[in-house]
Amino acid sequence: MPRRTRNPRHETSDTPHFGVCRFVLRLHDVRSLKEKRSISKSLLARARNRFNVSASEVGFLDSKTHLGLTFAAVSSGRAVIDSMFNEILQGLDIDPRFEVEDYGQEYI
Fold first, then answer.
1. Predicted confidence band of residue 15 (pLDDT cuts 50, 70, 90)
2. Which of 21, 22, 25, 103 has its CB 3.0 to 4.6 Å from that of 67, i.e. a possible disulfide?
3. DSSP 29-92
């Protein structure tokens, strides 16, 4: 099988950037997993609709006190992803139902 080589004519400066952002939230006054799932679903749907990100609840699935959320985004620029994740963080920070306990970003 022939080896593929890069063709300089097809290379662009618009290399895609992949970002992943993880949050751990400490929930206040949640009495059941059903109530926790309601909070999780509303947060994930809002982020998906507003920012066009992939979003999922990860970790702490059986905990009533903590909620783990992960968001992933693809863009032509890292600054766009940074801005998006910062807006998500700001939206989470003002919600009185929980507090952001941990937050992390990484890029691929």
1. confident
2. 25
3. S--SHHHHHHHHHHHHHHHHHHH--EEEE-S-TT-SSEEEEEEEEEES-HHHHHHHHHHHHHHH
Residue 11 pLDDT? 46
Q: Look at residue 1 in the predicted model and tell me its pLDDT.
A: 55
Length of the chain: 108
- Chain centroid offset of residue 39 CA: 15
Q: Determine the Cα–Cα distance for residues 74 and 108; give it in Å rounded to an integer.
A: 10
Instruction: Give pTM, 2 decimals.
Output: 0.83
Q: Is the dihedral of CA 73, 92, 69, 107 positive or negative?
A: positive
CA distance 41 to 105: 21
Does residue 26 contact residue 98 with C-beta atoms inside 8 Å? yes
- Interval 65-94 mean pLDDT: 96
- Token pair, residue 95, equals 């919600």
Pairing relation of β-strands 17-27 and 54-57? unpaired
